[in-house]
Structure formats: C-alpha cells, structure tokens
Amino acid sequence: MSKTAVVTGGSSGIGLQTARRLLADGWRVWSLDVNPPPPHCATPLFMRAEMFSYLACNVSDIASTQAAFEQIQNQTEKIDALICSAGVLRAGRLVDQPPEHIDMMMNVNIKGPWLSTRYSVPLLKNGSTPGHPARVVFVGSISGIRPKVGTGFYAASKAALHVLVGVLAVELADANILVNAVAPGTVATPMICEQPGPEGIGTSFRPSGMSPLGRIAEPDDVVDVILFFLGERSCYVTGTVLPVDGGTRAAFSPK
C-alpha cells in the first residue's frame, strides 16, 4: 500500500521537486499551494488523479488551511508525512522593511508550518507506531543558524521555525510523530532567482553563492535529505535541524 504525503509550497522549488520525487517513489501526494503546478508538470506523474491532487491553499490563513486538511481528511484516513516547504523571502534592511513584508514572512514562514502541523496531526496519528512513525519535515534555512545582513527578518523567521522543530518533536513524540528540518543554503529555486538586485532593495544582500564545494545547491540536494527523514533509516531521529549547505556555515572564508 502506498504512503501518503502532504507537501506545502508544492508548486515551486524544493516543494515541487519533493512532490515529483515522492510520486516517482510511489507515494500518494497532496500538494498545497496558492498557485497550481506549472504547465511543465502536465506529465503522467502529475496527471494520475489517484496519486496526485492539488489544493489551492494559503497556509498563512486559518480558514484556507483548515479547509484543505478537511478535504484531505474526507478522502483518506491517514497521512504518513507532512513536508512544509512553503516560504517567502523579502530582502531589505531591517529598519527599512515595510511592515507588510514582516507580516508576510511571519505568517507564511512561521504561522504556516504551525497551522499545517496543527491540522495534520489527527491524520498523522492514525496508523503511526513506534516502529513506523509518521513524519513532519520543515524546510528551514541556514540563515536561521547564520543570519545575513539584508535578510534579517527572514533569518529570524527561520530561526523561530527551527525552535518549533524541537518543541514539536518532544510534544508529538508520544503520538509517534517525528519532527525534523532541513536548513538549506543558497538553492537554485525561483525564490532566490527572483530576488531583486541590491540597487532595487536598498541593501547589500546577495545570495551566499558558491559553497566550499564549488557550487550552489540544486533542489534535489535538499530533497535527498528530506527523503532520508521520511525513510526507515531515520526512525530514531527527531528534533533535528540538518544543514544542507555544502559547508557554507562551517567556517568563514575571506575568498
């Protein structure tokens, strides 16, 4: 019997690649996003209605998130995994950031994963056992560990998300639900590629660029670790934030 996952932010970047990889591995996938999957996803993997469903959902909105999970609950008794990949980045000096940008990052990056977890717990608990626990994986950021000038509030939101990982892991342990996070560095996703240049945002912010390994991450580099957290070899791992940054935060290099 195939496993079932809910992926937020499933129409772009890391979330989209997570959905693609899970479908290829035989998972049933529910994708929650404010936008539908892009046209290039009109492939056999995504067109099988019994394996893939897209639900329009704003994870920062209580009614929207609750309605999405109620719809899922009407069609399945349980889910095996929740992957929270929805996130937004608005660059700028902290003192110059418009309040609406702060509200957006707080609502999507913090409130969104919390709401998604809250409404998914009843489905995650069904069928989970100590030997076969359910999984929650958040997409955090290396900026939540090593903040950067120009994206201070984004970093703060991801640091707060990392705190939620530890608390949720302990609170949900007796329900046999494991909670972990990946903390990527710069990844070749639309969120990074669409950021305006420094002259457009009044800050010196730039993506981290090449890691010590000589490149930035591709989405699959992060998804590989997400799949590890969903697999049988991580049954005793919970409350962990794992950097996936090619060593970027390991030591400062003046190069």
Q: What can be said about the biggest beta sheet?
A: 7 strands, parallel
Distance from N terminus to C terminus (CA atoms, Å) equals 51 Å
Mean pLDDT level: 90
What order do the strands of the largest sheet run in, or round the barrel if closed?
Answer: 3-2-1-4-5-6-7
Shape: globular
Order of helices and strands: EHEHEHEHEHEHHHE
Give the % helix.
25-40%
Q: How many domains in all?
A: 1
Q: What is the class in the CATH system? A: Alpha Beta
Strand content: 5-15%
Structure description:
It is a single chain. The chain is an alpha/beta fold. The chain has a single domain, classed as NAD(P)-binding Rossmann-like Domain (Rossmann fold). It contains 8 helices and 7 strands, in the order βαβαβαβαβαβαααβ. The protein has a 7-stranded parallel β-sheet with strand order 3-2-1-4-5-6-7, sandwiched between helices. Helix 5 links the parallel strand 5 (134-139) and strand 6. Helix 3 (62-73) packs parallel to helix 4. The longest helix has 27 residues, at 99-125. It is globular, with a radius of gyration of 18 Å. The chain starts with a strand and ends in an 11-residue tail after the last strand. The model is unreliable at 197-205 (pLDDT under 50).
